[in-house]
Amino acid sequence: MAVSSALPLRLSTVILPVYRWSTEGRRTWQRAEELGFHTAYTYDHLSWRSFRDRTWFGAIPTLTAAAAATERLRLGTLVTSPNFRHPVTLAKELITLDDVSDGRVTLGIGAGGTGFDATALGNEAWAPRERADRFGEFVGLLDLLLSEGGSGGVSYQGDFYAAHEVRNVPGCVQRPRLPFAVAATGPRGMRLAARHGQAWVTTGDPASVGSTAAGFYRSLARQVERLESVCEEVGREPSTLGRVLLDTSAFAPHGVSPLASVDAFAEYAGTCARLGFTEVVLHWPVPDSVFATDQAVFERIVTQVSVP
Question: Cα-atom radius of gyration of the chain, to the nearest Å?
């Protein structure tokens, strides 16, 4: 098993962008702050799985509204992808969001997949190799735009993306830019996380879906070990990279049910901390969906369990 990180384990949540702001939206994000979550993320999709024919709002406007309605809670995407975004326009939106929130934004970013977002703009879904190639270029250019997009501007010509004298004045409140949390399961993505990320994000090894709890935790340990090896390969101290685990047991069961009870979550959090994770992320309950967790149990977990 991997050596535990010296950093404390933080508890965060994902609030799906499914709430009308004037009724439930504002209240939900404010409640996340009241409960003491470190970060509240939202999914950055045009539509997603069983929610395709249900209410679903845009991630950046939702986070902007949440920034205005909260004071301490960090905010972020989990995750943004190249499927329907371009680094130039995304960078402008992010520096604006970082300004509105006074430096409380984390960009969760991933390669995307083959779901609804992949074809919404009328193109064919990218093959795995092209998706990985685009992801690498996307992250690198976005890093450049957010870090060096001052009065001199950024010009870039790649295989998939281009920028011509793009200026992002005044830049991010967070310097040199807002943090990236890079989602990755394979070595190419992990190298991107090691080079550009302030954190790495995983939902576990896809092969662990349907496994036992022991199998799931073994797969996480192997992932952490691979990540640490990649960090060493690129010359980065592994302990400087945060490790974020997003719980997906509601729609990709893997033998672990952290929201079943306070005791179940306490065991889960303790194991994650021993594996070296620095942050665990739970889905905010959504009635009549795969995330239909009991709200009272959810809030007891958040307030009663002392994470390591």
Answer: 19
Query: What are the tokens at 18?
Result: 């499914």
Distance CA 300, CA 196 (A): 36
CA distance 148 to 103: 17
Residue 206: both structure tokens together: 């896809």
Tokens of 306: 């002392």
| 93 C-beta neighbours (distance < 10 Å), count | 16
Q: What are the angstrom distances between the C-alpha of 228 and each of 191, 267, 286, 298?
A: 10, 24, 35, 32
Alpha-carbon span 43 to 46, nearest angstrom: 9
Token pair in block for residue 7:
């950093």
What is the C-alpha separation between 94 and 57, in angstroms, rounded? 17
Residue (of 141, 134, 135) closest to 177 by Cα position: 141
User: 67-122: per-residue pLDDT in tens?
Assistant: 999 999 999 999 999 999 999 999 999 999 999 999 999 999 999 999 999 999 99
83 vs 117: CA distance, rounded Å: 6
Scanning the structure block, which residue is given the tokens 């004298």?
165
Using CA atoms, how far apart are residues 244 and 227, in angstroms rounded to an integer? 12
- In this structure, what DSSP letter does residue 50 have? G
Counted residue by residue, the chain has a size of 308
Per the CB < 8 A criterion, the answer to whether 227 and 190 are in contact is yes
Task: Give 7-38 pLDDT, tens digit per residue.
Answer: 579 999 999 999 999 999 999 999 999 999 99
Q: Cα(208)–Cα(187) distance, rounded to whole angstroms?
A: 17
C-alpha 68/C-alpha 282 separation (Å) is 23
Q: Among 60, 57, 70, which Cα is nearest to 29's?
A: 70
From the centroid of its chain, how far is CA 228? Answer: 19
Spatial distance between the Cα atoms of 254 and 250, rounded to a whole number of angstroms: 9
For residue 129, the tally of other CB atoms under 10 A from its CB is 9
What are the φ and ψ backbone dihedral angles of 153, each rounded to 5 degrees?
Answer: 80, 165
pTM exceeds 0.90: yes
